[in-house]
C-alpha cells in the first residue's frame, strides 16, 4: 500500500514512515489503557489484549500446529513470557497512574536494561559510543520524570522501571530463542501464555464489561496487534538502527496528547528532557551515516 501511495520513497524512508505510525498507534493503546483502567484491573486489560492477538493468529496456529507443538525451547519461552507478562502489567499500571510523558519516558529505560542484559546473557559487546548515548537518554528520562520521594509517585516510578526491565528480559529471550525457532513460534507462545497468565489472576478481580466497554477492550487488543504488525513491517523495510531510534519521537507524541487529552502540562525541565531523549536517538543515526560516508570515500 505504501508503495502505491509513495512510490518514490526509499526503503529506509518507508520504514521510518511506518515506524512513526506504529509509535503513534502504540501510544494510542496507552491512552485507551488509561481510560479502561478506571474500571478494569490491568490483568483483565492484558487478558483481552492477548485474546485479540490469539484470535488473529488462529489461522496460522492451525496451519502450523505440529511445528508449534515440538518446540525445543519451552523453558526459554516461559522465561520470556514471564518477562513479557510483567512488562505489560507493570507498564499498563504505570501509564494508568502517571502522566503520559513520564510513563513514556520510563519505558525508554528498556534500552539501558537491554544493553546490560545483552552483555551478561548473550556476551555482546556494548561500545563506548553506545554507552554514551544510553547515558544521555537516561539523563533525559530523569529530567522528564523528575523522581520524588512521594510514596505514590515513587511506587509508580518503580513499576515503570520494573515494566521496562520485564520488556528487556523478553527482548533478550527473543534474540536467544530466534536462533533456533521461527518468528511464528515466538508470537504464538507469547500470545497464548501471556493471555493465560493474565486470565488466572483476572478471575479474582473480574468486572463484566458492558457492550461499549467490551468494544474498548477489544480495540486495545486490535490496535496493539496492528501496531506490532506495522512495527515489524518497518523493521523489514528499513535499517534496524534507524527504525529503532524513531521510537524516541514517542516522547513528543506523549507530551502533545497528554496535554490535549488529559490536560497534563509538562514543565521546562520535562521539555528539556524530551529534547535530550530525542538527541540520544538522533546521535546513533548521524554517527552511522558518517561511518558509511567515510567508508564510501575510502573505497572511492
Provide the fold topology.
Elements: H1 2-5, H2 11-36, H3 42-63, H4 65-69, H5 74-97, H6 100-107, H7 110-121, H8 128-145, H9 151-177, H10 183-202, H11 211-237, H12 240-246, H13 250-262, H14 268-299
What are the main properties of this structure?
300 residues; mainly alpha; 14 helices; 0% strand; globular
Explain this structure to me?
It is globular, with a radius of gyration of 20 Å. The protein has one domain (20-299). It is 82% helix and 0% strand. By secondary structure, the protein is mostly helical. Helix 3 (42-63) packs antiparallel against helix 10 and helix 5 (74-97) packs antiparallel against helix 9. The protein has helices spanning 2-5, 11-36, 42-63, 65-69, 74-97, 100-107, 110-121, 128-145, 151-177, 183-202, 211-237, 240-246, 250-262, 268-299. The model has no long low-confidence stretch (mean pLDDT 83).
Name the helicity range. Answer: over 70%
Counted by DSSP, the helix tally is: 14
Number of strands: 0
Proportion of beta-strand residues:
under 5%
Provide the gyration radius in Å.
Answer: 20 Å
Order of H and E elements: HHHHHHHHHHHHHH
Oligomer: single chain
Largest beta-sheet characterization:
none
Low-confidence stretches: none
Based on Cα principal axes, name the global outline.
globular
Pfam family, one: EamA
Keywords: Membrane, Transmembrane, Transmembrane helix
Organism: Halodesulfovibrio spirochaetisodalis
Membrane topology: Multi-pass membrane protein
